[in-house]
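Table S2 (continued). Query chain:
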Amino acid sequence: MTVTYLQQAFGDGLAELSGEGKTERIHYIAAAHSERWSDPEEKIRAAFWAELIYKYGYLPERIAFEVTVPRRIPSDKADLVIYGEHDEERKSPWLVIECKRADISDAEFAQAIEQACGNRASLGANYCGVVAGMTRRFLRFDNKFPPGERERNLMTDVPRRYGHPPEWRFYKNLPGQDLSAVPREELRAAIRKCHQTLWEGGRRSPIAAFGEFCKIVFVKHRDEKNPDREDGKPYAFQRGDGETSERLAARIHRLYKDEQELEPDVFTDKINLDPPVLAQCVEHLESISLDRTELDTKGVAFEEFMGGFFKGDFGQYFTPREIIAFAVEVLNPERGQRGLDPAGGSGGFLLYSLDHVRRAADRRFPRRDSDARQSRDHFIYWHDFAERNLFGIEINEELARVAKMNMIIHDDGHTNIVGHDALDFFERPKDADGKPRGENRPYLYDCNDKLRAGKFDLILTNPPFGSVVKRTEKSEGYLEQFDLRNYIGKSTTGTEPDESAKGENDAKRGTKVVKDRTSIKTEILFLERVHSFLKPGTGRVAIVLPDGILTNSSLQGVRDWLLEHFQLLAVVSLPQFAFAHYDAGVKASVVFLRRLKNGEIVPDDAPIFMALAENIGYDATGRKTFKVTVECETPEKEKVEIQSCDLFDYRVYYEWSTANPKKPQWSERHREIIPDTGLVAQWQAFQKDPDRFFV
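Corresponding output:
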């Protein structure tokens, strides 16, 4: 376990804690100063004070706390002041620091900069800065820079032991100057601050802000993994000494453009941010190593952030994670199988499929730090699955970018996600004589030549409900490519009155109703497109469907088409509120199907697994409803819980967090589904012996 600088200071007797709870205090021995330890700013100051000593080499005797600032209001004091190397009487301030909470806003951070600069001017120091968690900014003032300068005098870091400011702050594999992994709270704080910066107080829509965030994370991640960077060389994703926001932005744009050229279908448009905004985001993220931070930490932090982001206005794009996890457990993806989500959204089904295969790799190749081959085999096992066998299609370009970013954070596979309409033609339509017709634009095969019909083992998807595809809005022949249009009555689109009682009666009897259809609901078209993608005979799908498809009499024709083309394996009914807190209140079920071979007929007595899930882990407001059992606990250190719902049980690992000193609490580190629990276990038992499920 890595020892922090502050822990080292406690161990060396430079600081100590006394008291408990609200009365607990920290004592800085050399400075003869003490403060209330429950203050969140004090924890930031203590950590940076220890860093000044152990990382930057300053003597504890030269660091003062709460220094009165002359010529300013009487109560104004500087948080930390470093005095000159030989200034035993501490009369010549050298560096002035303001320490703030990690979660302060950009406006508060800018105000803190002005406070630090004012204190520096009054005290006559050469340098000043603000430390707010991982976001830091340091400025120098000498004969070259006037008191009002805030850009050209920016320093990358505090000078070491009264030396000169370094040209860069972070260097690859250079001890003490490399990027480091971070705990979940710090990563969450950095992500939150980035999104706040990008949102710009409402100037940019939440989804546009999130799209820009994805581009920045993409550049950051690729910069860390750049194989051409030699050891000891500086990273490019950071602000250099004296570098203006315009120069920094220009470099980030170049990095992004280089990556676009290498993978033109990852991100198609440019970064659309003003230089100061982009520079602020770089400062929030530059010290974090996304590559070294644990996968669980990244996964939980980004998933929580995205879960909150997609509630409300964008809820229709987000499938609750409990439902995704359940579908993945039932289909049980294997590394040799090819999987697809044709309505990919933010990539949830793909990520959980990847995690499922990664857990299989954990069991097959238990990782040991001393066994490089074992570690390499483990990586290849799951990474090949991500890179070669996981595919996603998302019509919304912004969401496709989110999914790609999500896959990047989870260690790649993102190039198999395309921003396109999954209901589009597989390839350019042709006339009767075989010549291509229509406009010259990309189709599914053009986007990714592996997106071919009949080639996928598994599909996991939650297609959009309720919207209608109109012929007038699509290209010639778009609706005509779907056979299902011949099985539904006019009333099923929800946009046209039923003009024929005979048509309604025919639909109820399942007779083909051949009409010149002008519009069809998307969920109906997705059923046929899913069938097209699956391998005949073996391909399986888990699909979330509105209950209307399963029960409405006017959709009997659709059900007849389904039973002609699929074997119905299972139907798990979800509560009315399953999508309510994502602003989508449609009653739905998860339906599991297998594509039939040509000419295959399913016996009438083939068993079908039917289940009703009432407790799915959350309620209509999003509040968790798991039944919780504490498996083991070490107070204020670590805890393991079993969280149970109808779908399955989780084993959840927690660690004690004091990130918020006013409210220390358990922080989730990792969760995993316990095999053979809940409806997943029932399904597995049903597959082995369905007879005992029938009375």
